[in-house]
Prior knowledge:
Layout: E1 38-43, H1 58-65, E2 86-91, H2 99-114, E3 119-124, H3 130-141, E4 144-149, H4 169-175, E5 179-189, H5 200-205, E6 208-211, H6 221-231, E7 235-241, H7 263-271, E8 277-284, H8 295-309
Parallel strand pairs: 1-2, 1-3, 3-8, 4-5, 4-7, 5-6, 7-8
Amino acid sequence: MSDTPLYQPLGGNDMPRFGGIATMMRLPHVTSSAELDACFVGVPFDLGTSNRSGTRFGPRQIRSESVLLRPYNMATRAAPFDALRVADIGDVAINPYNLLDSIKLIEAAYDGIVSSGCRPISLGGDHTIALPILRALHRKYGKIGLIHVDAHADVNDTMFGEKIAHGTPFRRAVEEGLLDCQRVVQIGLRGTGYTAEDFDWCRDQGFKVVQVEDCWNKSLTPLMEEVRARVAGGPVYLSFDIDGIDPAYAPGTGTPEIAGLTVPQALEIIRGAWGLDIVGADLVEVSPPYDPIGTTALLGANLAYEMLCVLPGVPRR
């Protein structure tokens, strides 16, 4: 790339954390990803939700809570801002009156973001946004491997007769040939289903499905060794629905399910993706109206930062 300087988050000793402009981690806001290695981008979209709306406010509150983050990861010693050009490129301007038009707008925006090789970390927004993002990534990289953390499989054929909603993106992605199905892992699935076979469709496609009961009361570090071996060898997308985490820790979401993953397990999953060719990631389904204190958004901000820390080219000090 060019000689564009490395950006650093605005420090808490330079501006109080309650002051300044609330970009992600108080990074500079730039209008183009052309000179960036990675970017944070908001997608304030919730037209695909099936229960509680409000994820359109997710990117804004995640950014607000991200002021507490600092540049260096003290657990992994990752130092993303020492090597990658990273900035906040703002939000995709969706159409709040038209779901299908919004999908087209998101897809076009991500075509532009990934064209230069920039790796987007997306702040949702509901999980519908994964479909247009995967379409853009597929045009750039070909078939994509996927690590999908969620309470739900999101492989419904339709919802109220509609083919595109937050419960359908990965069914559409399979049908459209966007995914390398042998390199897809779903972690944390749980709850009740419309049929007893709801998760079997995923297995029939070749996905590895790790239901939450297989995660209870244990470290997920050994699991992630298996996941890395399975999804390695090509581009990988990390899609993290905040409802994958137990609602005791993340109540601010539209479709909460009991008995979910813990926060340490979420960190083990993301940190366990280190070494993969991650071409993009998302953190979706944060719904601020259901957690006005901001705990869910704070967690989302931290998870998005952890995603940045496992991108290719990030050094460890």
